[in-house]
Amino acid sequence: MKTQLRAAATATLIMFAPVASFATNGYFSHGYGIRSQAVAGVGYALPQDGLAAATNPAGTAFVGDRLDLDATWLHTDRGASIGNYDFSGNGTKDFFMPELGYTQKLNDRLSVGLAVYGNGGMNTDYATNPFDPTGASGPAGISFKQYCVTPSVAYKLTPSQSIGIGVTFAYQTFNAKGLGLFDNPFISSAPGHVTNQGTDSATGWGLKLGWTGKVTSDITLGAAWSSKIKTSAFDKYRGLFAEGGNFDIPATYGAGIAWQATPAWTLAADWQRIEYSSFKSGGNPMQNLLAGELLGSPDGPGFGWKDVSVIKFGVVHKYNDNLTLRAGYSHCQHGIPSDQTFFNILCPGVVQDHYTLGASVKTSKSSELSVSYVHVPKESVYGKQSNPFSGYDANIHMSEELLALGFTKTF
User: Fold this and answer.
1) Which SS3 state, helix, strand or coil, does residue 184 take?
2) How far apart are CA 401 and CA 381, in angstroms?
3) Under 8 Å between Cβ of 31 and 117
4) 3-state secondary structure string, 303-338?
5) Domain count, the chain
6) Which domain holds residue 276?
7) Is the pTM of this model over 0.90?
8) Judging by beta carbons within 10 Å of its beta carbon (0-12, 13-18, 19+), is residue 237 exposed, middle or buried?
9) Partner residues linked to 229 by β-bridges
10) Cα separation of 206 and 181, whole Å?
11) pLDDT truncated to tens, each residue of the chain (411 aa)?
């Protein structure tokens, strides 16, 4: 059965793989499903569509029989500066990410679902190499993509409370170019496996658990946990990532509340924690190199990311039977310390605030069109003792705009 699930999940992801690349809360998407995106990613206690299980598998029990398809366009501006030199990482500015959610009620208590989504991603494309401005190493950058397929089962303990479980198959790809500065035996434990090795892939499995339920007539609570996913190694880049090319997916957990203030107005909020420091390629500081730990070694340097907390607020207004309006705001802690900016030139995921809007319009009794827009203002992190190769600190920045369109069919 596991082999069959893996084959089906891989086939599904192949259709999605060529187009995904995101970086919002660190490198995780700020929300899954177009309706959640429109309320800044709120979802622990507010399931709205077939992608509910991506946040909380217990929500699968409360969204009915439906198919949700949506696609998000991401326009991003990212770059860096070192000393008096500015470097643009915008060789590619526009990316697309499709999502799919399906749920079905089996009986009054049991529901199943399938969510296909991008858990996150990173991309930079520097025409002028910030690690080698002479151009000898050519352009620089990375492409990191992460896709997830989560089948879920939810069971109603009562008509208003449910528990859920999901099993996530994760597929990720990585490609790096122009990192010749690091490709030598004094810096890497495996020279020749640091840069310009083409695209490599890795896979892994994880678990999601969740609960949601009404505690009063108008208050719903929810909580969920997603395990750390131990993935296979990027063997082609075993001289870059710690532990011989390892790049696991960190655990996340959180809780939320939704208050139906009136029949037409719902207010909701989430708190989420992402454990970026839980795997060495993510959490180890670049300064490990100065302590004699080479890139790719068991305790080699990483991106120096910290664990982050995210707070999210959303409002849903049912304007009438055919039109629903949404808005939201979220704030993410900085995950990149000022002394870790040099290596993070490759992935300057430093944005913090998301301002969101959206709407859904019924086009028939069983179909609906939705839209969401997300504005992510420019955020910068200025380096402080960040560059182990020179006295010039690295400063990094990023901003984003996201627009999503979606279609829903209910059964």
Assistant:
1) coil
2) 19
3) no
4) CCCCCEEEEEEEEEEECCCCEEEEEEEEEECCCCCH
5) 1
6) 2-410
7) yes
8) buried
9) 249
10) 35
11) 455 445 444 445 544 544 445 558 888 999 999 999 999 999 999 999 999 999 999 999 999 999 999 999 999 999 999 988 999 999 988 888 899 999 999 999 999 999 999 887 789 999 999 998 877 789 999 999 999 999 999 999 999 999 999 999 999 999 999 999 999 999 999 999 999 999 999 999 999 999 999 999 999 999 999 999 999 999 999 999 999 999 999 999 999 999 999 999 999 999 999 999 999 999 999 999 989 999 999 999 999 999 999 999 999 999 999 999 999 999 999 999 999 999 999 999 999 999 999 999 999 999 999 999 999 999 999 999 999 888 899 999 999 999 999 999 999
CATH code of the domain covering residue 233: 2.40.160.60
In order of 140, 170, 204, 349, 393, the CA distances from 300 in angstroms are 21, 24, 22, 21, 21
At which residue do the structure tokens 């490609």 appear? 175
Q: Measured between alpha carbons, how far is 290 from 283 in angstroms, rounded to an integer?
A: 16
From CA 100, how far away is CA 334, in angstroms rounded? 30
